[in-house]
Structure to design on (422 residues):
């Protein structure tokens, strides 16, 4: 009986703790937005963060985009060939990349490549009391450390997603047209007939922007909230990757339901 | 000095991103078109083009010889006017016939050209006289069902 009560109590405490953290995270996010005016005035800080979040993620994004596109080309050809419509390969590759795979996979890679490093960096800054030292010098750590990282990552994310989609389509082209020999004109013309700039490409860009905000906000908060120990930082890093991956997939469902329902 | 190289990398990154979006908009999306070899254009009117699209291939004997460059509607004859852009390497007689075909059962539609026997060749701005529109699957099924029910009714009549 006592153990049952204890487990109930444990669940209750976890729920309350979760809601508490949610409130703190929201307050932290709003404070970041409020303080970002200052970081835009010192734009070189943002540029440095675009470098560490965006430019350093380029290789993994480009290479995985290429391979995802190549696999799509191979598998799509296998299936479409059975129906004698392998010319639709371009449409298949382009639509699946631009609408879904580009933003989602780029965001997942971004969460594990850049999000985890943001969390670890800020967590370590907190553990080594650099953030406390800044406060002592009357420098707001949110304006100096958090906000530039936020904007740098949010700016990088759509660029990375667009590059991912473009590389994927090139990969599909390489496999489909150059390797297998689907008619080149049909490949591009069917793709152009099916892909709409506003419906598909702009919605993809909006998706990646939303994912960028979600991933970065989670990564920053986990780092800022991490217990200042080695174990705490490592746990926070793991939590960043898990939470932001789940957030990306959940948000993707919601956004897709809004954007592509009954078009 | 350190900051300058960093700025350069970020600049390259942003330019690459803009290039990717431009690539998506122009080459993947429907915001631009590209042309290559020299071509000549002939016109043809069809009573029904089915699902034919601009930039669909034009084939003769199965070989792609050109692309559909424009599709319009003639409000006098109530027919579709299609502009065919053909490669100058391929010449066709003036009485060439054009018909709209489908590649595979569910595939895309294309225009098939069948050469005639005339000596004069087609040149820019000519019109193809003999055309055959797309076969609409629904009409075909309807016709088939109609014929079948007639066929069943006939043997029963003499008795």
């Amino acid at each position: 009986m006592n153990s049952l009560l204890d487990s109930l109590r444990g669940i209750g405490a976890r729920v309350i703790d979760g809601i508490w953290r949610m409130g703190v995270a929201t307050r932290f996010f709003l404070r970041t937005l409020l303080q970002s005016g200052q970081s835009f005035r010192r734009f070189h800080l943002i540029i440095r963060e675009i470098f560490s979040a965006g430019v350093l993620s380029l290789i993994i994004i480009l290479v995985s985009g290429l391979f995802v596109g190549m696999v799509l080309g191979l598998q799509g050809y296998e299936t479409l060939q059975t129906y004698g419509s392998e010319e639709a390969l371009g449409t298949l590759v382009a639509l699946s990349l631009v609408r879904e795979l580009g933003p989602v996979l780029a965001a997942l890679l971004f969460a594990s490549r850049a999000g985890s490093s943001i969390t670890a960096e800020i967590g370590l800054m907190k553990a080594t009391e650099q953030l406390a030292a800044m406060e002592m010098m009357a420098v707001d750590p949110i304006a100096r450390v958090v906000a530039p990282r936020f904007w740098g990552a949010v700016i990088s994310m759509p660029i990375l997603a667009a590059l991912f989609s473009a590389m994927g389509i090139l990969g599909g082209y390489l496999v489909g047209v150059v390797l297998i020999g689907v008619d080149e004109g049909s490949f591009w013309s069917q793709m152009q007939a099916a892909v709409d700039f506003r419906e598909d490409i702009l919605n993809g860009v909006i998706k990646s922007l939303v994912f960028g905000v979600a991933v970065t906000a989670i990564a920053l908060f986990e780092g800022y909230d991490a217990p200042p120990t080695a174990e705490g930082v490592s746990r926070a890093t793991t939590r960043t990757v898990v939470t932001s991956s789940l957030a990306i997939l959940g948000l993707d469902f919601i956004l897709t339901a809004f954007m592509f329902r009954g078009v | 000095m350190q900051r300058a190289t960093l700025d350069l990398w970020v600049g390259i990154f942003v330019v690459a991103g803009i290039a990717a979006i431009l690539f998506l908009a122009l080459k993947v999306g429907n915001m631009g078109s590209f042309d290559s070899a020299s071509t000549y254009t002939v016109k043809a009117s069809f009573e029904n083009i089915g699902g034919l699209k601009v930039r669909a291939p034009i084939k003769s004997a199965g070989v792609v010889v050109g692309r559909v460059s424009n599709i319009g509607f003639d409000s006098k004859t109530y027919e579709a006017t299609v502009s065919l852009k053909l490669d100058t390497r391929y010449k066709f007689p003036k009485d060439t016939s054009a018909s709209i075909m489908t590649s595979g059962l569910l595939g895309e539609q294309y225009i098939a050209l069948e050469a005639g026997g005339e000596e004069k060749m087609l040149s820019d701005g000519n019109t193809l006289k003999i055309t055959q529109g797309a076969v609409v699957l629904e009409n075909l099924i309807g016709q088939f069902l109609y014929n079948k029910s007639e066929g069943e009714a006939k043997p029963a009549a003499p008795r």
